[in-house]
Amino acid sequence: MTSAPETRQRRRGQALETAIYDAVLAELAAVGYGRLTMEGVAARARTAKSSLYRRWNSLEDLVIAAVHHELPDVATVAETGDVREELLAALTLIADTLTGPIGPAVTSILGGMNQSPNLQAAARERIVAPRVRALQTVFERAAARGEIRAGAATPFVVQTGPAIVIHTCLVRGLELSTQDIEDIVDQVILPAVRPAS
Amino acid sequence: MTSAPETRQRRRGQALETAIYDAVLAELAAVGYGRLTMEGVAARARTAKSSLYRRWNSLEDLVIAAVHHELPDVATVAETGDVREELLAALTLIADTLTGPIGPAVTSILGGMNQSPNLQAAARERIVAPRVRALQTVFERAAARGEIRAGAATPFVVQTGPAIVIHTCLVRGLELSTQDIEDIVDQVILPAVRPAS
Amino acid sequence: MTSAPETRQRRRGQALETAIYDAVLAELAAVGYGRLTMEGVAARARTAKSSLYRRWNSLEDLVIAAVHHELPDVATVAETGDVREELLAALTLIADTLTGPIGPAVTSILGGMNQSPNLQAAARERIVAPRVRALQTVFERAAARGEIRAGAATPFVVQTGPAIVIHTCLVRGLELSTQDIEDIVDQVILPAVRPAS
Amino acid sequence: MTSAPETRQRRRGQALETAIYDAVLAELAAVGYGRLTMEGVAARARTAKSSLYRRWNSLEDLVIAAVHHELPDVATVAETGDVREELLAALTLIADTLTGPIGPAVTSILGGMNQSPNLQAAARERIVAPRVRALQTVFERAAARGEIRAGAATPFVVQTGPAIVIHTCLVRGLELSTQDIEDIVDQVILPAVRPAS
DNA sequence: CCTTAATCGAGACGGTACGTCGTGTCTTTAT
DNA sequence: ATAAAGACACGACGTACCGTCTCGATTAAGG
Lengths: 197, 197, 197, 197
Hints:
homotetramer
């Protein structure tokens, strides 16, 4: 007699971890960050809560890890010699992170940042910083090429792009089109760094 | 000596509501938004949970109402004839909202906005919009006076100030000094609207 | 255009009381004693809770009053000269009280008797006692006629009929047919009082 | 002196269950069935409500289980060869259940039986039936010995004893003395089954 | 190859908070 | 004066998750 193959292979280590990350993103898509629970993730991953707590101290840690696992490892912008082109590329990189498949997860994390210093630090370092660094690089290369005023790329100027993109998505709740990104670059960023004529 | 006032007057309507708002802010200061609970608010306000749920559908609604109750009713900027001065005033208005006594509550709300459309709509309308309108007015008056280029105050330009302020507080976790606000105005906003010389 | 006559005549005194009694019985039939609430009665009677509490101290009091209001005022058994006939009549009187339209209310009260001395006393005096007295009278008249042994109608013998009827309905959860009542009389009660042959 | 045992051993399974049963009876004795609550039981047992609901669906179920746990496992009457003696023993068994230490709990259950079919079925099967069976056995053995008329022990005759005992305790609110039980046997039950002389 | 140690899955446990319902009291408005 | 309406403070309900824990069952690795 052939009984049903009830005994699914028991996963461990890396395989289990990946399955959990998938479960986190699926659960995020299904119920949203607001209703995300350890219990739900464990159930969807068909694992035990203890296997989650053994690896991560909190739901936040788990979500950060899952998002980081899914994000493109490196976020760089190729040098084209045209500052406007490169700025568009860098901002698109940031916008895509917020509107792509794991966008909801990312915005959830950004929104939750003020609630816990740990989350804030982790998210800043592992999600925000790499992308801002790409932008920073764009400015530095443009300054080196003499395309923008030396010293124009102050911290606030560098943060302006990310700030507007995030603000538009998070606070205003709008989608960002290609045209929007061009507007941001043309109306706000470039005027701030354009060399005196 | 008078006997102990065992029979505290039962509060109703406006008086009760104010007491609840106070309790919300006290609780926020005590445990933070992350650990804020209806139960805790009710206990601190010495009222019943049902009296909370009768008025507000959720903790979020309650917090919004409490914050709105505490915020200055109108947020306007006096016309001085100098666009830079007025911009500084408008941005300071926004920054003060985030760093003042109920700053943590406000940032909590902003952070939670992406989690619920209701919260987003309410917060946008009751907290963000009035302050952005003040800024909008500054631009319009400056345009009328010819201080800035006509048509320069596009939506993205108007949102730039708020975006940077919020981004700095929320995502970067920094305080904003007076100097910082001046930098934002001088380095980012004014260049975007300054009339061609 | 005249608006709908929203303002139903406001009831007072006797009229209101009767309406409340009706509501109690309707509610009992609808949700059972276990889920009977002051709130529900008030809503069904379209009156205010205070109008209930002004008249009765508790739900139990209200139910007792409602049941008593609905029960036949006097419960007597006509003398026929035949003790068996009269016993059948007296037991049928009791059984009908438990199985008639307000049967559920009565059994609820009997079941709840042990929970409050007040309820017990009230129910005993206003519901049980009159019916047992009718039975008692039957025995006394039969003894006077010599149909049963003098002194045979001890307290336990008198209570036997009511006890079995109530026990059958309440504990065993069975309906009582005419045949059942005959069996009780023939198999248990009459043997206990029959004169020695 | 050993340090305070802050970390009370976490109880599980059987040990926890027994502690809960104790808490139920203690709570019953303290506040009565009418004011018995899951919350109170959990607090007294120093456990969580979820541990109660995991095992029992309702307060009623819990009380039944607690009572059943406390009751003598088997309720049998030894054969003595004398039907009167055995009847007294069987009825005493029933009376003791109602007047013993957990008497209030038992009467509460009997009183609540009509309120829920589940409770009724459970109580009938787990509390009433075993004791009535003991009585049934007494009749059967007496019939086999020829002490009583064959066929005299009809269902109603068997139920007469329990009915009177329960009725006396529950409805009339009286205690039952040894003499009372003798009276019930001598005045009601024996006359119904005594062989024609 | 077989033991041994790790770790997985399952779920019980003591908690906290949830959002709802009913209580009995009290106040207000309108007959 | 009292009916109707409903707010209020309170307590309990039954549920959902939390983070901890115990307990076999499974699996990889070492002797």
